[in-house]
Structures are given as structure tokens and as C-alpha cells.
Design a protein that fits this description.
Helix content of chain B: over 70%
Largest sheet of chain B: none
Largest interface: A-B, 27 and 31 residues
Number of strands of chain A: 0
Helix content of chain A: over 70%
Order of helices and strands of chain A: HHHHHHH
Number of strands of chain B: 0
Largest sheet of chain A: none
Order of helices and strands of chain B: HHHHHHHH
Radius of gyration of chain A: 22 Å
Shape of chain A: elongated
Strand content of chain B: under 5%
Number of helices of chain B: 8
Number of helices of chain A: 7
Oligomer: heterodimer
């Protein structure tokens, strides 16, 4: 599929989400207009978790000898970058929602704390990628680092879950999806927001991957060019 | 695991501890630094004894963590000089053994550090260290986890050559559950609350996961460093 079609789908979907979320859906009985964050925050958070999940998966695929290829390394790195952006957006939109509903910008709740630590872990992953030079060594090292960091996530979650829990439990994604408190227009808008943000993720991932391929080509060709220039100089000197 | 692995571990740990005994970097720099951190916390809390006593478990473990990062850095700066890392690779020892040795030496130093800091907390924050058995067990489990995770990230950071700045960023978020669980276990043990065993389970799981990760991943990480 061409990235352009996915991009168009994502942008149209997002525009429709904005229109439905702001115009058509009803305000909430308790939260009023604040409930409209429902069409951004959960979808953004989903993309962040999806992106980190993809990075963990591609790290496994890279380390597995039969599927080892730079393709997985580049996809994983691209996905981690998008994940960090969306994870930060999750915390920002959550914070905006928390302030009027809980009365504070930040709560040391289990899910918030896990998400914040997840962000820190993957910021570390990106920092590690940045300082590595040799592409093959970098691929292996960062795949191992991603998996070792990912192993920490369940432990973090378990420990902070025991510590504090305030975030509301999932109310829409309950078994059977039967939720009488959600009006149909809200349900459809929510679904649309998930689909649009996922399409946006796919689009960004394709472009970031393309940029990663171009970056490595630039490195290779730049090296060849520099070598050719040095050879030419040597020839002039010799002549 | 074979006897070979354990022999390699004993050799590497013996080497690291012998260097420490001769150079005394841990004793003369890291441990005093940790005590300075305890003193600084007292300034931050306005030397309020009630507050300090309440926060003592957390402050103790934060000090252990900070000093632990320095310990990890020291452990791998030993290998950076004079191509020692190449030497280590060329010995042909099992990487799992090298990992267990480095982590073991680090754990040994951390235990001494924790003893010093516990004395510091008892004196400076006037905390009576009740429930001694639980405290010691918490320290043992947390130390294994700290040493294992520290050694894994130590070799990752050492291999890219900016370990001073990169290591804390990589390591401290990973160690967050250890800090949380060890702090809660200590404060439950000190106040006589019953929750300490539950938190020790988390410390145990963390230790097992990171020892396993180190045994599996240390080879490839050391190979390319």
C-alpha cells in the first residue's frame, strides 16, 4: 500500500473525529465537555503501547537468527520514536484531564506511573541508539536493551499497582462491549478515534522507516564519495 | 550450569574485589559519597527528626541506588583501561561466568555499602533498625537485583563510551521497582506492618529476571563492546 493513501485515511479520520467529538457527541452528565478528551487520550495511549509493543516484537525478530535483518532494526527504531512522542502526548492529555476531574495535574497512580516509567525507558533506548556508531553493533545492542527494558514493564506495573491505584478501570472495553452508559454516537466516535490514530501511526511509521533507509544510504554513499575524493587527490599529488 | 561457569565467576569476582582492596575506590569515594547524600537529605528535610524517621527507608534506598550507579561505573571503568575488556574476552571464559563474576563482586561491595548506610541512617535519622531479619533479607534480594541489572546496563553503556551520562538514564528507570519494593519492605519491617513479604516477592522476581537476562545477554553485549 502506498503511504499516501494511509495518510489521507488518517487525516480524514482525524478530521471526522474532531467534528464528531466536538460537534455531534453529547457532553457527559458528570464531566460535561471534559469527556471529549475521551476521543483523544485513550487512542493516543493505545498508539504509544502499540508502538512500544512493535519495538519489542521487532527486537525479538532481529535477535532471532532466522529472521535477522536490518529491516526489523529500522522498523523497531522508527516505532520507538513514534511511541515516545505518543507516550508523552498520553501523559500531557491525561494531565489535562486529571486536573479538572481529580483536581491535580499528576497522581502517583499505577497506570500513570507505569506510563511515565515506560517513557523514561524508551527515551533511554533512543539515547542509546543515538550514541552508537556501527549500524550492526547498534542493531544488536539496542535490540537486547529494548528487550531487557521491556522485561521490566510487568514488574513495574505489578509493583506500582500494589502501591496506588486511582485511574478509572476500563469502562468501555469490558467483556461483551455492552456498556449502557455510553451513547451510541460516543461509542462510534471513540472507535473512529482509535482507527484514525492507528492509521496515523502506520503512516508515520512508513515515513520514518523510509527516512531511516535514506539515512543509512547517505552514510554509505557519503563514505564512498569521501573515499573517491581522497583517491582523486592522491592521483593529483602523484602526477 | 557447569562448574566451568562458576569457576570463571569466582575468578572474575576475585579479580574485581582484589582491585578494590588495593585501590579502595569504593571505600574511599563511593561510600563517603553515599553518606554525604544522607547528610544532604537531612538539609532537604530541615533536620526534622519525625519526617526523617518516616522517610528513612526511602532515603536509604535512594542513597544505595545513587552509590550503586557509581559502583557499576567503577566496575566497568576497570575494564576500559589498558584494553582489559579485550583481555577478558580473549580468556575464552564463558560470558555467563564473567557476568556472574562482575555482578557478584558488585553485590559484595553493595552489601558493605548498605551496612555503612544502615548505620548512617540509624545514627543520623535516629531510626531504630527493628525487624532486623526482614531488613537483611530485603537487602539481600534487592542487592542481587541491583547488581544484576547494573551489570547488564554497565556493559551496554560501557560499549558506547559515554557511560557517565548514559548509564543513569538507562539504569535508574529500570531500577524503579527495586526502589519502590525495597522501600516499602523496609518501612513495613520497621513499623512492624505485615506487608514486607509481599514486597520481597517483587524483589525476588526482579532479581531472577535480571540474573537470567544477564546470563543470556552478556555474551553478545560483551562481544561487540
Amino acid at each position: 500500500m502506498k503511504p499516501r493513501y494511509l495518510g489521507i485515511a488518517a487525516l480524514v479520520g482525524l478530521a471526522a473525529t474532531v467534528a464528531l467529538g466536538l460537534g455531534v457527541t453529547p457532553p457527559d452528565q458528570v464531566m460535561g465537555d471534559l469527556v471529549r478528551l475521551l476521543y483523544i487520550h485513550p487512542a493516543v495511549a493505545w498508539v504509544a503501547y502499540l508502538a512500544f509493543g512493535v519495538t519489542a516484537l521487532t527486537s525479538v525478530l532481529y535477535l532471532w537468527p532466522r529472521t535477522r535483518s536490518m529491516f526489523w532494526d529500522r522498523v523497531g527504531a522508527s516505532s520507538a520514536e513514534i511511541g515516545v512522542v505518543f507516550c508523552a502526548l498520553t501523559l500531557v492529555t491525561g494531565s489535562l484531564w486529571g486536573r479538572p476531574t481529580w483536581g491535580v495535574w499528576w497522581q502517583w497512580d499505577a497506570r500513570l506511573t507505569t506510563t511515565a516509567l515506560l517513557l523514561a525507558l524508551f527515551v533511554g533506548y533512543l539515547a542509546l541508539r543515538r550514541v552508537s556508531v556501527d549500524p550492526v553493533a547498534r542493531a544488536r545492542r539496542s535490540a537486547v536493551a529494548a528487550l531487557v527494558a521491556f522485561a521490566d514493564v510487568p514488574i513495574v506495573h505489578m509493583s506500582v499497582l500494589w502501591w496506588h491505584t486511582l485511574h478509572q478501570a476500563p469502562t468501555v472495553l469490558t467483556p461483551g462491549l455492552s456498556n449502557p452508559t455510553l451513547s451510541p454516537s460516543m461509542g462510534w466516535t471513540l472507535l473512529l478515534s482509535f482507527l484514525s490514530f492507528t492509521a496515523l501511526y502506520g503512516w508515520l511509521l512508513m515515513h520514518r522507516y523510509r527516512a531511516a533507509v535514506l539515512e543509512s544510504r547517505l552514510d554509505d554513499e557519503g563514505m564512498e564519495l569521501a573515499l573517491a575524493e581522497r583517491w582523486a587527490e592522491a592521483k593529483v599529488d602523484a602526477a | 550450569m557447569s562448574a566451568e561457569v562458576w569457576r570463571a565467576a569466582a575468578l572474575v569476582a576475585g579479580k574485581d574485589l582484589r582491585i578494590e582492596r588495593r585501590a579502595r575506590v569504593g571505600a574511599q569515594q563511593v561510600a563517603p559519597f553515599a553518606l554525604v547524600v544522607l547528610v544532604l537529605f537531612a538539609f532537604a528535610f530541615d533536620a526534622n527528626h519525625t519526617l526523617l524517621r518516616q522517610a528513612a527507608p526511602g532515603l536509604f534506598w535512594v542513597a544505595v541506588l545513587f552509590a550503586g550507579v557509581l559502583g557499576v561505573q567503577r566496575s566497568f571503568s576497570l575494564e576500559a583501561a589498558d584494553g582489559a575488556r579485550d583481555g577478558l574476552r580473549l580468556t575464552g571464559m564463558d560470558p555467563a561466568g564473567i557476568f556472574l563474576g562482575k555482578a557478584g563482586a558488585l553485590a559484595g561491595q553493595l552489601v558493605v555499602l548498605e551496612a555503612v548506610l544502615a548505620a548512617g541512617v540509624a545514627v543520623l535519622y535516629s531510626t531504630s533498625l527493628r525487624g532486623g531479619g526482614l531488613l537483611v533479607l530485603t537487602c539481600a534480594l534487592a542487592t542481587v537485583g541491583l547488581a544484576a541489572a547494573g551489570t547488564v546496563y554497565g556493559v551496554v553503556a560501557a560499549s558506547v563510551g559515554v557511560s557517565e551520562t548514559l548509564l543513569p538514564l538507562l539504569l535508574l528507570p529500570v531500577l524503579a521497582p527495586v526502589l519502590l519494593a525495597a522501600t516499602k519492605a523496609w518501612s513495613d519491617a520497621l513499623t512492624g506492618a505485615p506487608g514486607a513479604w509481599g514486597w520481597m516477592r517483587i524483589l525476588g522476581v526482579f532479581a531472577v529476571v535480571y540474573v537470567a537476562a544477564g546470563v543470556l545477554a552478556f555474551g553478545p553485549l560483551l562481544e561487540e563492546s
